[in-house]
Design brief:
Strand content: 15-25%
Oligomer: single chain
Bound molecules: glyceraldehyde-3-phosphate
Helix content: 25-40%
Shape: globular
Number of strands: 25
Number of helices: 17
Length: 540
């Protein structure tokens, strides 16, 4: 037995070791949601396997989780039609509904969603290998996001509930929907990042076609009925299947008004270009990133080490906001590396339901990609610094700290999105700053220092390279009320509880010249509550 196999294979369960509290049995999903109905899919199916391998009769195989519809282009277009007819070019029940009524539907959905917490959390662990605390956090954070969104919509509505008068023209200005939104999310946050676009899109009056992430598909099934009963037919529709057939076909039809996509810039570019009328398409994109950590010579080492380990390796480094390269001042490089590697070595490896940090990776080709980055870096002069680094077996990849990395290595430039941590020493601060200036990415940076002058001198130029400068703190998206965006290839548009309401809507207004006749007309409409838009009703 090779070293790798001996050290990592025992982490995988034997026979019936998936704990009973996960309540697991394979899910053969045959339905998709369209026009308020769960339609049975009779065509091809896609099989779902867990990154968790199970040993049975001495043979180790990925746990089969079930299957879902692999829909074709024709059916995807039928689903799109249901979203289009629910929107009805802005004249449908949903886009013209009172905000308070839309909120009521969403609140109803929230109650039903909360009841599915345990089921969804189990699927998160089994489908994408996210550990239990992070899976629970993903669910709870999503619930909180919905509650915060409801409050933000109420606020927005209150601010728009009076009339303005300028230069003899009265106006009521509100935000109106944009049309049909195609929502697609990444596998690392298949629930949260889906809902981070889906919910604001819906509440602003758009109708939605949603395609689940590449991994993390079955976890949506327990919510389908809640979607179905909470919203009018066609307002929310769910399609499944291969990207070209589903999303590609919808985009090529030119009938998608907004693309909400969180994933790679390469895929986003392909999808966007498929739309025949680019000027009509709005895009809200969360894309690639390679956030650096910069550890200055006067940094508090304990803080820097713990934030960098967590920032680089939480969920095995599979976060767009992860710290993906670490620059350390040469004067403290040895000390930092020792403490950093000890901390990395203390991370426990195991199954998602155990008390561990490092878990199986859902992308089947990811271990080979990690190995290729490691081999390339070693061939060009880096070493593996931590004990256990470089070991991998099936879907388990031990965290690997590479040092010193340089410009010629792939891992210096590529977004690894996995448990490989490139580290390099710098003598002059211009080195990490130039790295950011020259980078194609522009999401966040983390600076570790206790010197106020030094931090201040770095903050001013760096806020124009990225969109969030973290001081003595790892980079991250949350709290979700803060803006989440990026420069260059890292994003298009800004997401946060309030920003998302803006990106999925447009300011639109009703105006009239100030005279007795028009005042009487407006008063009659408002007092008689004849319009949902032209209204001074105040939402409590
Ligand atoms: O993958 C990108 C996520 O938006 C990161 O979110 O920083 O809360 O893990 P997070």
């Amino acid at each position: 037995m090779s070293d790798n196999i001996e050290k990592l294979s025992h982490h995988f369960p034997v026979n019936t070791d998936v704990p009973p509290e996960l309540n697991f049995s394979p899910l053969e999903q045959r339905v998709y949601l369209s026009n308020g109905k769960l339609h049975e899919w009779k065509g091809a199916l896609a099989e779902v396997f867990s990154p968790v391998y199970i040993e049975r009769n001495g043979e180790l195989k990925p746990l089969r989780l079930g299957s879902y519809p692999s829909m074709d282009g024709t059916t995807s277009l039928e689903v799109l039609e249901s979203a289009r007819s629910a929107y009805n070019l802005g004249r449908g029940e949903w886009p013209t509904m009172r905000v308070r009524d839309r909120i009521e539907r969403l609140q109803n959905f929230l109650v039903l969603m909360k009841a599915k917490r345990e089921t969804v959390v189990s699927w998160l662990m089994l489908e994408i290998g996210k550990n239990r605390p992070d899976s629970e956090n993903e669910f709870d954070r999503t619930v909180e996001y919905i509650i915060d969104t409801i409050n933000a919509v109420k606020n927005l509505d209150r601010q728009s509930s009076d009339l303005e008068l300028h230069q003899g023209i009265y106006a009521q200005i509100r935000r109106g929907p944009l049309g049909v939104v195609l929502c697609m999310a990444p596998y690392n946050y298949p629930l949260n990042e889906t809902f981070a676009t889906l919910i604001p899109a819906l509440i602003m009056g758009n109708t939605v076609v949603f395609r689940p992430a590449k991994y993390g598909v079955l976890l949506i099934e327990p919510l389908l009925e809640a979607f179905r009963v909470s919203f009018p037919p066609g307002v929310i529709n769910v399609i499944y299947g291969e990207g070209k057939e589903t999303a590609g076909t919808l985009m090529e039809s030119g009938k998608v008004d907004v693309l909400a996509f969180i994933g790679s810039s390469k895929t986003a570019n392909i999808i966007k270009k498929q739309h025949p009328r680019p000027n009509r398409l709005r895009s809200v994109l969360g894309l690639d990133a390679k956030n650096p950590a910069v550890v200055m010579e006067d940094a508090d080492l304990n803080v820097a080490v713990s934030e960098c380990v967590n920032g680089a390796l939480a969920f095995n480094g599979q976060r767009c906001t992860a710290l993906k390269i670490i620059f350390i001042h040469r004067k403290i490089a040895d000390e930092f590396m020792k403490a950093f590697c000890r901390k990395v070595e203390s991370l426990k490896v195991g199954m998602p339901w155990e008390d561990v940090a490092i878990t199986p990776l859902p992308e089947p080709d990811k271990p080979a990609y990690m190995q290729a980055l490691i081999d390339d870096a070693i061939a060009k002069g880096a070493s593996i610094m931590n004990e256990g680094g470089g070991l991998q077996f099936k879907s388990l990849v031990n965290p690997t700290v590479l040092y010193p990395v340089n410009h010629d290595m792939r891992v210096y430039h590529e977004e690894q999105f996995g448990p490989v941590v490139p580290v390099l020493a710098f003598d002059d601060i211009s080195e990490p700053v130039n790295y950011m200036v020259e980078s194609n990415f522009g999401q966040q940076v983390s600076i570790f220092s206790n010197n106020a002058d030094q931090i201040a001198a770095l903050v001013d130029p760096l806020v124009n390279q990225v969109c969030r400068v973290n001081i003595n703190t790892k980079s991250q998206r949350g709290p979700d009320v803060y803006p989440f965006n990026g420069r260059k290839d890292s994003a298009e548009g800004t997401l946060s509880v309030t920003d998302a309401l803006r990106v999925f809507s447009i300011r639109t207004m009703v105006a009239t010249r100030d005279n007795e006749q028009n005042r009487a007309l407006f008063t009659e409409i408002m007092e008689g509550r004849k319009s949902h838009f032209l209204s001074t009703d105040f939402l409590l």
